[in-house]
Amino acid sequence: MEFTRTYSRQHYRVPLLVPYPVMFSATDMIAEGKVMNLTVFGCTIECTDSLQMGTSLQVRLILPDQAHSLPVEEAEVRWVQGNRMGVQFRKVDRAADFRLHGFVWDRMIERFRTIVQDGLSAR
Q1: How many domains does the chain have?
Q2: How far apart are the first and last CA of the chain?
């Protein structure tokens, strides 16, 4: 008898209604794309440059909370589907990590409030 485990995320993923710009680089290239969704541990990037699974990257997220980009010192491409790739953050500076957690938390609270308000107005 084979046991099938359902897939579930353990951390909140911020679905972005307006994608954020991102810059990333590998050993032999520099490219730009759009962050389509975001967690504190990674993101989905849409871009025209296709990369291989396992590629190591440096990433700079352009988030609307501050004028400066958020640097991810080391990340890895975990999956590729067409012009989208899943990126896992491997090494993030402590200050950038606090900022990332705060940004995701704020988006999560905004989403929760929207859900609650929609539920109340549907009554």
Answers
A1: 1
A2: 46
Which range of residues forms the domain containing residue 75? 14-121
Please list the ranges in the chain whose pLDDT falls under 70.
1-17, 123
Q: What are the backbone angles phi and psi of residue 59, rounded to the nearest 5°?
A: -130, 145
Distance CA 67, CA 83 (A): 27
6 in a structural domain: no
* Predicted TM-score (pTM) above 0.90: no
Tokens found for residue 108 = 């999560």
Q: 79 forms bridges with which residues in the sheet?
A: 86
Q: In this structure, is residue 85 part of a structural domain?
A: yes
Residue 26 backbone dihedrals phi, psi, to 5 degrees: -115, -175
